[in-house]
Structures are given as C-alpha cells and as structure tokens.
Amino acid sequence: MNVAIAMVSGPISPACHATWWPDGSGRCAIAGGALVSFDGVVRPLEGNQAIDALDYEAYEPMASRQLRQLGERVARDYALLALACWHSIGRVGVGQASLRVQLAGAHRAEVIAALGAFIDALKVDVPIWKSPVWAE
Amino acid sequence: MDVRVRLFGPEARLLGVPEVIVSLGPGSTLSTLRASLAARYDGLHQSLTHARFAVNHEFAPDSHVVRPGDEVALIGLVSGG
Question: How far apart are CA A68 and CA A60, in angstroms?
C-alpha cells in the first residue's frame, strides 16, 4: 500500500510533495484520475485572541504509528492509490502549514471523501497537541 | 509496583510535570490507575472522565492489566491538524 507518513520539525515546506505528485513537466507518476492536496494552515486567531504561532507536541513513536495505521485504513476503505501525510512538531507561525495531506485515487468522489475521513480521525486518534503562542 | 504515567498537552500543563509515578498492586488494571490518579490529582478530574490510556504506544482499554515496565501514557483530548 502506497502510504507515506512524516513528522516535520517546524512548518511544512512548500516544496514538500509526495514522490508521485506531478513533477516539473506536470506528469503524475501514478495511474489515477484524481489528485488532492490539502494544507492545514495556522490561523491568526485562537478564539478571539491574536496569536503569533502554534507549538505542536507529539507523543512519539505513537503519533507516527497512529498516522500510518490511519492512512492505511483510509486508503483501503476508499480504494485510494496513494496517501501521503506530513505533520509538524514544534513551532509553526501564522499563515504557515502544519499539516499536508496528498491523496490519489481513480475518481474525485472517493478521494475528497477520504481526505475528510482522514483528517476527522486524525483529530481524535493521533496523540498530537497544539498550544498557542499569544501575540505580544 | 511503581507505574510511570506520561502526560502531554493540557494534562501536563495542569500538573506542571511531564509524568507522575503511581504505586499499584499486582494485577492492577488501567481502571485502578484511573481511580488512583483521580484520588491523587484534583486537577485531572475532568480529563479523567474522557481521557484514554496508551500502553506501549497503543491505546488500551481500562480492563488492561498493567505490567512492570509498561510505558503508560494518559491521552487526553488531542488537537493535531
């Protein structure tokens, strides 16, 4: 099963993509008809209060293991061709990405549904916590 | 048997420490551990109504018997993403 998981220190780089994501020529190295890439980005407000960043803490290796098991389950349940996920640990500033998920499948419906299912479960079963860094 | 319980996120901030040590009798379960934590740490009362335990990096039910050397973690509400 083509599932790749990585924990990244700090924000996720814009250059960070799955090995099968379309390259400079625009060609995708996977035989799917639907690709989705999602970035979760740090918002400027926590509640009504301004923040500068979020600090992410993970319980490793459980967090990586849970992410992998979740990715494999979602890929199987939604008949995906591939799923890749990066999650930040440490400090991520406002406007920067702390989560990237890239999925490939035969058709858009299952890929879009799989993205929602993956993130919903991540927010329940993966031991990662964030705490706000309040703006001065 | 002394059991080291790792704490993260809100629970670690509530107690101000990354772990606590709890003494349990032989054959004790995670349910016993939950009750011991509730009796000893007022600050954890609310978290303990919903928090899960992980043993050796896997979620475990309250019926799980704790063994010497187990790595136990209290997993409260997570907030990744």
Answer: 12
How far apart (Å, rounded) are the C-alpha atoms in residues B27 and B46? Answer: 26
Strand ranges in chain B using DSSP code E only, listed in sequence order: 2-6, 19-23, 52-55, 58-60, 72-75
Dihedral, CA of residue A87, residue A88, residue A94 and residue A100, to nearest 10: -20
- Per-residue pLDDT tens digits for A48-92: 999 999 999 999 999 999 999 999 999 999 999 999 999 999 999
* Per-residue pLDDT reduced to its tens digit, B31-63: 999 999 999 999 999 999 999 999 999 999 999
> Across B7-78, where does the E strand assignment appear?
19-23, 52-55, 58-60, 72-75
Q: Tell me the shortest Cα–Cα distance from A135 to chain B, in angstroms.
A: 20
pTM: 0.94
B10 chain-A contacts, CB cut-off 8 A: 129
